[in-house]
Design goal:
Blueprint: E1 18-26, E2 29-36, E3 50-55, H1 66-73, E4 80-85, H2 104-117, E5 122-128, H3 130-140, E6 150-157, H4 162-169, H5 178-183, H6 187-190, H7 198-209, H8 216-229, H9 248-256, E7 278-283, E8 306-311, H10 328-342, H11 390-394, E9 396-397, E10 400-401
Parallel strand pairs: 3-4, 3-5, 5-6, 6-7, 7-8
Antiparallel strand pairs: 1-2, 2-4, 9-10
Amino acid sequence: MAFLVHLGLTATPVAGRIESQVFLEANGLNFSCTQLLDSNDDNSQGFDVVNVVLLHGFPMNRDWYLPLLNFWNASENLSVNALACDLRGYSPGASPSDISSYAYENMASDAFELAHAAGYRDFHLIGHDHGAGVGWLAASMAETYDSNLTMLSYTAMSVPHPDVFSKAVCSDAGQEDEAQIIASNYFNQFSLPDSASINNGSLTDLFASFGLPVDPTTFQPPLWWYNGSMPTYIALPRSLNSTEESDDLVTLVRQAIPMDARPCLPQEQSIGPVVIPTLFVCGGADPYLLCTRPSSVPDETLVPEYQNYTAPTCGHDFFQDIDCQDPQDSLNTMYAISDFLFGTDYLRGDESTPTGAWTPTTAPTSTTTTTTTTTTTTTSQDSSSSSLTILSRLGTIGGMVLVTSIWMVVGWW
């Protein structure tokens, strides 16, 4: 199963180095992948080839990264191999029918084994949404997973370090972030073992009304990502009582699967320190992951080589033209990620970084690289005031989402 998502920028592969029908075997499963292949065989520009593995989130697929792959493909001086696959539960050949297969440890292992299958000996990891949650766990294993495979850096998009996030939604009185508890309350419904079929498949019907071509059988494996991670590595917020208000989309999920009020379920196992260079990319207008708030920032002992980039007008999905109020923010996000991975020397002269978009730093080349910590300050988010929910972006008729020329579903974590 591959979900259909129409992306806002260049959504189809441009001619050249992108191969969209690649199948790789990892952990006994067959993954459907897209690869960007380096074409500078003679390395005439003097650049080392950089390998990148990209993990998509829920309920997207590998196509979510096509705008970024096309951006790199258009850079004449960039020597990069990049791999984006439909992950476990999305690839037809990698969708086990047992819930235990979707434990986060298995999916973190997939990231390393896909790098192996692509022939990489070292690589940079990028994750978005639930792929970022998986990526945090994989990054914490970077020094111990395989001595013959080196993870050079990690870029997390939208999702803060799970240990930090877990404290924000379930901790001692006075330390929780009430706005984040409300914004992420759908975790409680999504993480149920039968979330796609319970209550006559109401949650599946809700997402089908958004334009997602699913039925309970195909929708359950992606939803098992939540069950496989919560509350093992990610705390579950308390479930709201019937009188508490939430944003339109979270309210729809609560209506699809009503739940009684319940205390939060704390994180059972910490992710722990991530010692490789790490970039956190935050959407300043994300209505679900309120990543500009202080509760999203890890301390130096947890992520010692931490950088932060905030796209001020972007919501959760960055590369969709409908997601950022200022389209330049989508482009700036690609520059920020590229500068972190490759350094500014890799970009063509006519792609100079826009003023104020990003302060370039030295690209990480090993697990011992020292990087400069930079933080972009933006206005604190409030989930109740966000104008970028899927309902407001697509419009509603009689409570049903009207999808016109755009196939687009919200990205959730």
